[in-house]
Amino acid sequence: MAKARGLVAVNIEECKGCNLCVVACPVDVLHLADSFNTHGYSPAEYDGEGCTGCGVCYYACPEPGAITVYKNWAEAQESYICQTKQVASKLILEDSVKGIATCEACGKEVILSNFSNLSFAE
Amino acid sequence: MSVKILGKSKGFYDTYERRPGNNHEQTHYCPGCGHGILHKMIADAVVDFNVAENMILISPVGCSVFAYYYFNAGNIQAAHGRAPAVATGVKRALPESIVISYQGDGDLAAIGGNEILHAANRGEAMTVFFVNNAIYGMTGGQMAPTTLIGQKTTTTPYGRTLQNEGYPIKMAEIIASLEAPVYVERVMLADVRSKNAARKAVRKGIKNQIEKKGFSFIEVLSTCPTGWKMTAPQSEEWIKSTLVKNFPLGVYKDIADQVEPLNLDLNLATPERVPKLIGLEQDKMEFDTASMKLATDIDQEIKIAGFGGQGVLSLGVWLSEIGMRQDLEVSWIPSYGPEMRGGTANCHVKLSRAKIGSPLVTYPTVLVAMNRPSLEKFEDDVVEGGAIVWDSALIDVEPQRKDIKNIPVPATQIAKDIGNSRVSNVVLLGVLAGFSDFLDPLVVR
User: Fold this and answer.
1) Is B199 part of the contact surface with chain A (CB cutoff 8 Å)?
2) pLDDT at B387
3) Could A115 and B5 be called an inter-chain contact, meaning their C-beta atoms sit closer than 8 Å?
4) Please, which pLDDT band fits residue B285 given cuts at 50, 70 and 90?
5) How far apart are the first and last CA of chain A?
6) Contact between A39 and B39 using a beta-carbon 8 Å cutoff
7) What is the average pLDDT value for chain A, to the nearest integer?
8) Is B1 within 8 Å of A75 when comparing Cβ atoms?
9) CB-CB under 8 Å, B12 with A59
């Protein structure tokens, strides 16, 4: 079994439920949700554990921003920079299925699929 | 170890504000469409090569015509099949730009077949992405030149036959047979491995252009789950099992390493060269800044609208002629239906002290409405403080706007009283001359 060191975060509003990532995932940790998003699609959902961070789902996905893959989640957690306080902080994973974490410094919720608005130390 | 994240490329807008409607989060493509995958590859490549700022995407007709909703780049929409011609112009005018012609198979192989052949034959330094899904996707799944023998489409319900429609056309092979192209490859978007190969081809095609190597052509076998009536994973399987057998993958030509970079400046039409080329003296091309300041006082953008036979276009011609006699720059452009009489007609007139860039009048300073549909259609377009001159003998409603000059003229009635209702346009010309300060009544007379 490959090492589960990644994290995949699906932006459920961008996902159209085409199933390509589910089929492509080599370790089978994605599935289509039972619920609908506001556009009427059943989005892809992370099982919550087992992601190796290989990125295959990102390349399989036709939507520009639906899938974000943290290839090395542990490093990402450690090098997070808090937007509110502009200080080095840490991410505490709250819900791995929905891709929600909280910022240690300000305590605010961080949506992990909203990757373009997050910053990390180099 | 640094953080590695795969996510939305900076080559895309954060939200797709250009997309009409409420959904600014998703692309307009169907679930599982290959366009999105190729879009991501292109966006990633231009960001990685640091040329996203210079990218100009030419999107002709096809599902991808709306690519400009998503790419944070320059874009020109071209007529059906004409992207290579437009791309030629853009690349020659702006040699440093990264010009990408993004075309579907109905667009490139059918209506644009001639354009692509000649652009390729000239070796224009552009990158062409040819998305081949063997069907006309946007219009609902009709047969394309690339449709396979036996493939059922809405226009070949019993399957494409050799006798009726001929063989599927193989563009990569055709382009590769020409001398000028430097790189021709066919890839597919079907599984992890093939998408990886496609990503490399996309990057090579764009890199070739950055290095000014010449014409690169990448044919991408892509899915159309809706047109093929399959699920997205099924369509990827169909590419692998069927489509690829008819369109073999591979590098059909690659001489990029053997050719010298092109000197693109040779073709460049600079502002200094253009007047000489078309026989104009240089000094006449320069703007007189003093007159441009005055121009705001006198610039008029006039839209005249009515039905055919009212003299709509003639009134526009007269206004232009009067403008010319007053030494103004003028333009006149008609827009009318196929009928000489009875159809809708309107014309756009510009009177300006400065050079006129475009003859189109979208937001008129003066609207001359000669029938009710014209008033209703164009009333909201009039600029604040503009004027609406309307024929109150024919129009039984009033303009609703309060921020404009409202000038009702019973033009047809006046013309009838004079003896001929057909001269209502002359009455309106008189009114325009009377109330406005931009027409010299002496010249009008």
Assistant:
1) yes
2) 87
3) yes
4) very low
5) 30
6) no
7) 91
8) yes
9) no
CA-based nearest distance A91→chain B, Å: 13
Asked if pLDDT for residue B290 goes beyond 50, the answer is no
Burial B62-73 (b: 16+ CB within 10 A, else e): bbbbbbbbbbbb
Q: What structural domains and CATH numbers belong to chain A?
A: 7-70 (3.30.70.20), 74-120 (no CATH)
Residue B344, classed as helix, strand or coil, is: strand
CB B396 within 8 A of CB B379: no
CATH 3.40.50.970 fits B34-267, yes or no: yes
Q: Supply φ then ψ for residue B390, to 5 degrees.
A: -135, 150
Mean pLDDT of chain B: 88
Q: What is the pLDDT of residues B333-349, one digit of tens each?
A: 988 766 555 567 889 99
Mean pLDDT value across residues B31-57: 95
Alpha-carbon gap, residue B271 to B275, rounded angstroms: 7
| ipTM of this complex | 0.94
**Cβ of residue A27 closer than 8 Å to a chain B Cβ:** no
Q: Which residue of A has its CA nearest to B3?
A: A76
pTM strictly above 0.80: no
Residue B295 pLDDT exceeds 50: no
Whether pLDDT at B187 is above 90: yes
Q: Any idea what DSSP says for residue A33? A: -
Task: Return d(Cα B349, Cα B359) in angstroms, integer.
Answer: 7
In contact, B313 and B337? CB cutoff 8 Å:
no
Look at residue B95 and give its three-state secondary structure: coil
Tell me: pLDDT of B397 over 50.
Answer: yes
B-chain CB neighbours of A16 within 8 Å are 26, 30-32
CATH topology of domain B287-444: Pyruvate-ferredoxin Oxidoreductase; domain 3 (3.40.920)
